[in-house]
Amino acid sequence: MSDFLDNMAANSAERASKARVSDVEVASAPPVVPLSLSQFDVIAEIKEQSPAEGALAAADHDRSQQAQQYVQGGAAAISVLTEPSRFAGELQHLREVAAAVPNTPVMRKDFLVEPVQILEARAAGASGVLLITTMLEDAKLAEMLDCAFDHSMFVLLEAFDAHDLERTSTLLERPAFQSLAQQGQLLVGVNTRNLRSLEVETERLKNLVPLLPDAKCVAESGMYTADDAADAAQAGYHLVLVGSALMRSDDPAALVAAMRSAGSARIAA
Q1: What whole-number distance in Å separates Cα of residue 11 and Cα of residue 46?
Q2: Is the pLDDT of residue 194 over 90?
Q3: pTM for this prediction
Q4: CB neighbour list of residue 15: distance below 8 Å, 6 or more residues apart
Q5: With 90 as the cut, is the pLDDT of residue 56 above it?
Q6: Which residue in 59, 70, 76, 81 sits closest to 8, CA to CA?
Q7: How far is 251 from 261, CA to CA, in rounded Å?
Q8: What are phi and psi of 108, to 5 degrees?
Q9: In which element (H, E) is residue 248 found?
Q10: Dihedral sign for Cα atoms in the order 186, 257, 93, 27
Q11: Predicted local confidence at residue 1, as pLDDT
């Protein structure tokens, strides 16, 4: 792992060691909202700041209103950063968003290392979680996938390189995981962010296409315009995850809609 991921993993492990989630909290959480995908989709992200781009939202930013604009634009799901040290996130942000858009699936995006953090997400109203392949050994990754799926949540399994995708393909040889991938409940993401330089390496999307498994695949990082979404669709991706561009947009609903339209048009061409 990079130094950045090492630090994130250590911070996350410390948070996980203090996490306490009761069965009652999980059972009384808002119902899971199923992920429903179309020809091309956008996962729209809410994050307060980025290590690469600095602050993305004012102190009085209205997360609920932002989420509602994403829904107006047709976002398939909303990703909420909950990592506190570098992204200024917290679980309360997830609760706010899940309450504001009760009919749209909300995903916890963080550097999760223990199943209890998935239970935290579910108790806060999440219908999905992001898991980072390179941070988790095979046994732990399978354990966390099982935890999410046992609670009917979807998973975005994030890869950075060929080795991550090879491990993902091996996981998808398991009939249960293969079935969930075919149902669109196990997504596979390719993150183009170089976690040492924090620069975006857009060529990674095309370079890794031959290794993509048989699943709905998500292009992550560096997605700013409708043209970017169209390029991702042409390369073979079914969704884009978009954060910074939407946080800074004067009309995030229109940008979500434009990305969905451009991606779908490129697939149909």
Answers
A1: 21
A2: no
A3: 0.96
A4: 84, 117
A5: no
A6: 81
A7: 16
A8: -80, 120
A9: helix 244-248
A10: negative
A11: 62
Residue 180, both tokens: 């969930």
Q: Residue 241 in 3-state DSSP? A: strand
pLDDT band per the 50, 70, 90 thresholds, residue 192? very high
Average pLDDT for 74-96: 96
Pairing of strands 77-81, 106-109: parallel
- E strand residue ranges, the chain: 41-46, 49-50, 54-55, 77-81, 106-109, 128-132, 154-159, 186-191, 217-220, 239-242
Judged by DSSP in three states, 249 sits in coil
**Is the Cβ–Cβ distance between 98 and 121 less than 8 Å?**
no
> Measured between alpha carbons, how far is 34 from 153 in angstroms, rounded to an integer?
8
Residue written as token pair 């963080």: 110
Distance, in Å, from the CA atom of 100 to the CA atom of 238, rounded to the nearest integer, reads 26
CB within 8 Å of 261: residues ≥ 6 apart: 226
How far is it, in rounded angstroms, from Cα 210 to Cα 29? 40
What string of H, E and C letters represents the secondary structure of 55-99?
ECCCCCCCHHHHHHHHHHHCCCEEEEECCCCCCCCCHHHHHHHHH
